[in-house]
Design goal:
Structural class: mainly alpha
Radius of gyration: 26 Å
Helix content: 55-70%
Strand content: under 5%
Amino acid sequence: MNLIITYLEIIILLPVIAGVILFFLPEKYRKIKSLAALAVSLMVLYYTVKLYFSGGAPGQINLIETGFLNWLGTSYLSGSSGNFFMLNLDNLARFILLLVAFFSVLILLYSYVYMDRKNALRNYYSLILLTLWASVCTVLSDSLFMFIFFWGFLGLTLYKLIKGHDEESSAAAKKTFIMIGASDGIMILGIGILWKITGHFNISELTVRTSDAIRFCAFLALLIGSFTKAGAFPFHTWVPDFAKNAPAPSSAYLPASLDKLLGIYFLTRICNDIFILSGWIRLVILILGGLTIIIAVMMALIQHNYKKLLGYHAVSQVGYMVTGIGLGSVLGLVGGLFHMVNHALYKSGLFLASGCIESKTGTDKLEKLGGLSRQMPITFICSLIFALSISGVPPLNGFASKWIIYQGIIDFGKGTGMANHLWIVWLSMAVIGSALTLASFIKFISGIFLGRSRTGLKKVKEVSWMMWTPMLILALICTGFGIFASKWIIPALFEPVTGSVTFIGVWDSSFISLLIAVSIILGISFYLIFSMGRFRTDESFIGGETNRRDVGFEPTSFYETIRNFGILKPLYGWAERKYFDIYDVSKIITLKISHLFSAAHNGILSNLAFWVLAGLIFMFIFLLI
């Protein structure tokens, strides 16, 4: 127990102390700040690993009773006040802590080179360490009072990690801050309702049935907070804008990894610990999960900016996690959590790859790129693995987690509720979403790495080893998690969290991987034996004319047929005009109401007296009711 408290002291206190110190260190010592932040994150990772493997730790720890906070003069706190300082150290919390520390190390290693003078973001390393600290405290907090404090603090660091160098990026930062802040306010309302109903703030003491309107309001308020943080429909619109305008490490660290980990972690707490869900609420969750998959991937298909394309895919993949957790079964929960981890791996890798590409080419437009596979082979290979992983191509990790979710949906169909009877709908949306994901990443890979090299990109070279090493580590993990999913990864990492899982049908990821490897080897062997040297080359002959070598293809023209197809054309037009953006729609409504009241209050004394009297009458009637 004493060792666990020691580990907690280091994990909780070291990042915040170092972050505050680095905040006061001048920016000219950027490299020193970078190395210091990396060293701190490595220490946090080391002690998080020790905490993860420390056996026999209790689920809940009261920091007051253990003397953890006595040096702050809090020893006088006791009774109900001490409940605010309860930590939850169950297997789920330990697992999320391990992932948070791991991604912090990789992002800081990558940032050492990326965050040079050109890409410098003021107090970047302080913000990363403070984000690490707040994330750790959020995961550990058993008290919803402390949870919402650290959860809200993460909204501030998210806002600061956008550079804000022009009007568009400043607008994206403001939009992110307002949407996250508004959802935090709604969460506070939900927490207040829970306290009024149960008299408890601690997650471990809550078990609430969604049996009436007031309890459903509490559930809905917390669900909105979870969905906004994770980036699920319809509270997702900040994610693509953030991804487009923020530095690549910021996007890889927050929307790609930490925000997904924390948002889905809290969704898991909501659906499995805090509330007992009714069948029709599960139906709503599954509908939102399916819509998140389809709507976001359809928007990704038409993007010309590859960072925004990745942003929409960061939204689409949340739909699989929401669907898995919404099923309410062990199989669905394993699939949802496994996909949460897999998404953090390959999506953070894709954002890091986008940072490598942008740093070397100076553009984030697909139409200005092409043929970079020769100049940037490591970035290309890693990006290809990430793209195949997110598309659900076996034997990579994205396929493994999606396959479990598919199995969970089929097993869910054995139930008797309305949501159960619609299992084929949820399965179809998940499978179609995966196919469309592959289609859009064909555009991503071919547009950036394949085809003819642009004239201005002939001198592009591979990035520094400190930038490609994190990508290579993530690519290897994506491969390993896919190959060894069924025998090692799921039993070792997820069954301690969810309990024993039984797959339906026959599924052995290692055997499938072996078959794929054998087929590839045989294909190459047959090619070398029977086809080498037995082919000729000639000029392309298209439409009666010889194809010019200097003419390539535009990746942005991919899927224009879909964009202009029937009912999809006006829908895409409305989407681009922000008609479906909850932030912009709310802003327009608010401004119109404000202008209406501004016009009514024209400064004439008689009109002002009328509005005062009308307000008093309204308040009087409201109090009587």
